[in-house]
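Exercise 7. Given the components listed, write out the predicted structure of the assembled complex. Treat all entries as one system.
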Amino acid sequence: MTEEEFSDINGNTISLDCQSHSEFCKEFTVSVPKLSLRKVMNYTCAVWLTAYAVFFATDNTNVLSAAIIVTLVGMMLHLHFVKIDHESMLIIGSLGIQISASYASGRESTSFIEMSKVKDIVINEAIYMQRVIYYLCILLKEPSDPGGVGAVVPLFQVKRSKHFAHNNRNVVIVMQYKTLYTLFSHGFTGMLTVLYLCLFQSSKPRLNCLEEVYKSCQDILGQS
Amino acid sequence: MGRRKGEGQKGPIPDSFLDFAAMNLKEVPRKQNVCMVSDFFYPNMGGVESHIYQLSQCLIERGHKVIIVTHAYGNRKGIRYLTNGLKVYYLPLKVMYNQSTSTTVFHSLPLLRYIFVRERITIVHSHSSFSSMAHDSLFHAKTMGLHTVFTDHSLFGFADVSSVLTNKLLTVSLCDTNHIICVSFTSKENTVLRGAVNPEIVSVIPNAVDPTDFTPNPSKRDENKITIVVVSRLVYRKGIDLLGGIIPELCQKYPDLQFLIGGEGPKRLVLEEVREKYQLHDRVRLLGALEHKDVRNVLVQGHIFLNTSLTEAFCMAIVEGASCGLQVVSTRVGGIPEVLPEDLIILCEPTVKSLCEGLEMVIAKHRAGSLPPPAAIHNRVYDRVAKEVVLPMDARLNRLMSRCGPVAGCIFSLFAVLDFLLLVFLRWLVPDSNIDIAVDATGVRGAWRRMSTPPNTCTNTGYDSNYDVARDLNHTQ
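Answer.
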């Protein structure tokens, strides 16, 4: 079991915990630092000051009550649906991949993908908001066409971001050595049609962290 | 630009887009990271699109790293790869009119900056004056202190409203661009007038010359003889009468000389007469009309390329000849002196005597073996641009104010300052160190191409070393 420090795309520190249960079974956990008190204070202050300014101008006390409700409900929703404590991925060769995320409120969401459906795990890049980022994703097999790539499952995806400027049908893989090597060595020049599933979508680790996970996953996928 | 003027005075050639090639022959060519920006790219079809694609492929072959940035076409957005790992960014920017994105000057800065940083771009090359994205990227690149090149693909009028506006935009956008490339001399004239730019920083590089099509092949030459190649239409303007005078004179002097003449035209009669008269059937071969694809096969058979034009705006033929590694002898007319550097061309007056002298000089040189090796002749606009200094902010503002008129100058100076402030803000928000360096997958040095050994063994090593190179570059920068 090793724990390493990495940073996410915003420069915040995150830690990657690699647990090797056996040769065919590894677990990766990305832990995000807890919600900092300063951040909570800042947001609360911002909402309250605005509310007070509006109250000062309109003399309507409902504004202040609304501000309190907005702060409380907003924080609850944030903790329950947005803020993630850790995301983990358990890969068991020949069995499947389990992806889970636990939220700050204690809620957990887990999903499992059978190995027979998994085509490969790759690192892809996409335009996200005003950035271009790398992310890890699982390629799924198309049931009708076992040779081709059917779907891509972004690993550790807890919320499917609408801001991603890629589309499910046309993702071009950056670092899928085996597949791309094969494609390029056969003179492949066109687009790859794939479906995908993103990993670590909430914690958004940087490339060096993704590589670490990618390599270990490839070791297991290669064995099975 | 002062440097350029100084250079011009030293040599007899005023300005040529190839003179730096000679300068750089001994230096190790520096690999550039070029970013092509245009609103127009595949799947849209047209001249600009194919020009960008082919230019990128040629640059990749020469070892540069090239990426293309364009806006999203319908469902096609995100990042794609084309042949040879040519990366294309389809940015999700709104299309306003005629496949051109809207110009708000600032809105594309965050994404473009992110791309320039992660791809370690050194030169931004924008295409087409219709494309607002191209102008935006030039603007941002200059703010970021990157080198800029602009290629103009179209001609404009001066009278109607739309061209007045576009011309103003062009003036603003070009006044501090490092280098401008036009596709023809007409286009150069047009751009210089429209954009009020210094003609010295404008190069003419016709789309049609593909250096990979015209590569030297010395093995095709007959080394027992000296072959002079002429490829041109056989018309009066091309000075075929001069050629008719040169052939007998030189053939008498040099028994091992032969002529290879490609082309067709009314003046073919003159050459046939000369051939009859002096009995030179075995030494003067008239090939007739040549198809474009056959031109190279003819060119590589020769040692010397002769051009006898009486008037010429831009001689494509001599560029093709030089590109095939031939020593070029040409008349000093029109735009020809601009086309090639001094050591690649011998310029003569358009008379039989002068041309004969020029040819004799080359023949003597050839016998002495002092001609440069064919493979060493290349052109590199980028190397030249990379050596130029990007204007610092204050100089840039001065230039904007002085070149673009009082109103537009002030407005765009303000824009330039705002752009800079926005950049400072973005650098604070997302520091450069937080941006992952993109995997370089272009060309032979690309990440994927390193997998030429069995994939299993180098899944890790191949990629890692490449990534480390990128990281090292990051540190040195």
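Discussion: Chain A has two domains: 2-35+83-223, 37-81. The first helix of chain A runs from residue 37 to 58.
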